[in-house]
Design a protein that fits this description.
The complex is a heterodimer of chains A (351) and B (338). Chain A is mainly α. Chain A is built from 15 helices and six strands. In chain A, strand 4 and strand 5 form a beta hairpin. The chains are: A mainly alpha (351), B mainly alpha (338).
Amino acid sequence: MNATGDRAWTSRLPPWAWAAAALLLLLLFNALFTEHFLSLDVKQGRLYGTPIDILDRATPVLLVSLGMMLVIGTGGIDLSVGAVMAIAGAVTAGLIARPEYSVFGSFGGPESIAFAVAVAVCVAALAGLVNGVLVAGAGVQPIVATLVLLVAGRGVAQLLTGGQIITADEPGFRFLGNGAILGLPVPFLVGMGGVGLVAGLARGTALGLLVEAVGENPVAARHAGLRAGLIKILAYVMSGLLAGVAGVLVAADVQAADVNKAGLYIELDAILAVVIGGTALTGGRFSLVGTVVGALIIQTVTTTVLSQDVPVEYTLIVKAAVVLAVCLLQSERFRSRVRLRRRSARTEARA
Amino acid sequence: MSRVPAIRFGPVLATALVGLALYLAGALWLEHFVAWGVFTGLFRDNAVLGVVAVGMTFVILSGGIDLSVGAVAGCASIAVAVLVERAGWSPPAAIGAVLITGVLFGATMGWLIHAFDLPPFIVTLAGLFFARGTAFVISRSAISLRHPFFMEADAAPARLAAAVGGPESVVETLARHAPTTSVVFLATLVLGVLVLRFTRFGRNVYAVGGNSHSAMLMGLPVGRTRIGVYAISGFCGALGGVLIATYRFAGDPTAGVLLELDAIAAVVIGGTLLTGGVGGLAGTLLGVLILGLIQTAVIFASVNSWWTRIAVGGLLLAFILLQRVLQRTFHAASAAPE
């Protein structure tokens, strides 16, 4: 096997192949060394077990990653998602706990909860719109434009909650965070809905292609008659909207809005999930399957470390190692270096 | 050529004006705001941010970013505390070891970024996770420093003046207004300015940040420069951690959370472009002081602390829009026929 054959073999793989291999390895490791990893129980009509737990807990990161993927596809980045989650959580919990602000006025009815969630998601989409207009309209670098909301967002959320942790312990809200439909946890179903929505938009319509065209070369895209600005804005609005849904789910999980903790550092996890999944930060291409796999890897690493009785503080170090390993595997320069070394070792052995 | 100052000094000038306006507003509306203690307090209370922001300026000027500095500072503070209190090292040895480790850590990240063409954002993010994780592995909770070295460290300038027989008034002024943390901040800043303005390395940083490809074609040592800036940032992060340990008398694995964010904000407010190649440390000093002024004003006005974040975000927005306007005028002017 010569070097060119080698390269052709690795470059023919889909971009998410390395991530999928990593996830399989992680799952294999767990199946072998973690007790009861593959067991599923049914209690009170709901499925329980580690795999379900991973899927359930991965949902916020997954939702945020999907929006982040679209933004990165346009060649941008959205640092504000964690802050947007905090704002969305504060709005929902605030509206549920203070029904006098709701148009329905009733306390805890399904329609008042639906109203609170809808308002929160709209506010989150609006935050995305602000980011999008700054990037596409004013031409500010994405990393700087979204830095504004990252810095100010939690302040705004604290302003909304008055600096308190707002509790909203309502049956309907609890169902959103901890309930189950047909045995599957509601957050997981919401996550699947998010994947379906983004898959439908990105691959069912031309939108995905347009996003990639804008990310690959915005000038060429504009000359080809695409409204590059509008497409970018749409990507940021989607990112904000999905972060808003994630924020609502996180608040529903604990029936409270903790604006200091909700979504803290999630932008980093989401960017990681997207990059691990084979989407380059330079934009122009994105991989939906890869992003889903990336989000699952991040949650599986956390769950694995926890279930192996490793002290919690090692989670971060393991995460750092996984990130670096996947990035190195994806780096063409790293692969060619390893190949060179192997080849020279082989020639030496022959001589 | 006459238009170059607009892009070079415009943002810094605007930052200086905003800083001045903030100070005047504070002086008008807040009682006891105009006092030497308040002003020198800006340097003391923001020394950690300042030192870290100096390193961040180097990295951003070279076209990169370093997300790991806050975690490095936290890790350094707890490492110093453990080495001194648990392992019985002498404080200077512990501080030296931590600083060297910081340099090596930064250099490793720089090497990974350069050698394998990895995005700085991701590599330094892995660095953030690694450093924060290591901090928690070293100790899960804060460790207080009881060694007399740290009790006396902050008054070092005053003690030095007293030792060489300086007049009473000088000693007292130093004791009140120039704690070691402030002096270290200013020394780091001056050293940074000297390196950036007067060494070949400093010019290479601007060249690599302006266009790394041209820099390479010109035969400049792109790799060495990149590794160098991350090493400097690692050093500054570790130094920030040592300062945290010095003025809090404790090492804390959770110290420095979101510090990287404030440092980036200070650098951007100071007029350094995140694309690299444009900006400098004078702006960063102003950026740090403005962040400090906002915080001080919020405390003096006794409004809720979340207004600090909102105000910083608003200022950030104002500055980047201003930079866009300046850039556009500059580009329009240079594109126009002479």
